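User: Can you help me understand a structure? I only have the sequence.
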Amino acid sequence: MLVFFIYPILLTFFYSFTNLALTGESAKELKFVGIDNYIHMFRDPTVKISIWNTLIFLFGSAVIGQQFLGFFIALLMKHKNRTFRRVIGTIVLAGWVTPEIVCALCLYSFFGDDGTLNAILHFFGMTEVAWLYTLPMLTVILANIWHGTAFSMLVFQAALDDVPSEIEEAAVVDGASRWQILTRIILPYIKDTFTTNMMLVTLQTLGVFGLIYAMTGGGPGTSTTTLPIFMYNQAFVNYQLGYGTAISLVLLVMGIILSLFYIRSMK
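Assistant: Let's start by predicting it. Here is the structure, written out as tokens:
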């Protein structure tokens, strides 16, 4: 932890106060520039757009998408026979085990102008849509939901299997409806699982880069530019590593704040 985690963070923190660059005069001589990178960052309108896009992407694909869809699929498979659970589980897991770049290319082909989705719309006589141009944020959110929902499904499936069947059977005998069993027995019993899973998918979603970069490149314009995309562009496209590391610390702080919030809520 000290060598591979603490030291790189401290080094990143130091570099964020320098003019570290890959090319140009700054690459020849490392200089301490104080908080100039942070002043420039918070004056840059693209940073505000990137933070907002990151929050939208996080809320749409992690909080709403993966969390609730994963729970819904796990709930549907509860009490089903082993063959049914094995088949459905394998289908859902296919998206999760697919490498991120392969997943991005598959979904780019699905949402592209000549892709599968528009072919389906054309078959039913509906108007085709330029999904990656008119609704880019929605497409990357749906792509990340498809790619990551299986993890939440596995977590909730394990939690639902731990709910004592005797309690549910007693509730049925007492005349409880399915909705009452869900809201008064199942959800309270696995509430800690919701918090733990939310923390894990949040941290995972904050760092999503390859999926968005391969599908939209952060565009059109800055419509899908999240903090990881913006950080990469500044550090490795514009070669301003010092500025890029300052942006990365903002992403780190966001992850820490959200993690502390989830841990506190678990108490």
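Now, to help you interpret it: DSSP finds 15 helices and no strands in the chain. The first helix runs from residue 2 to 15. Let me know which part you'd like to focus on.
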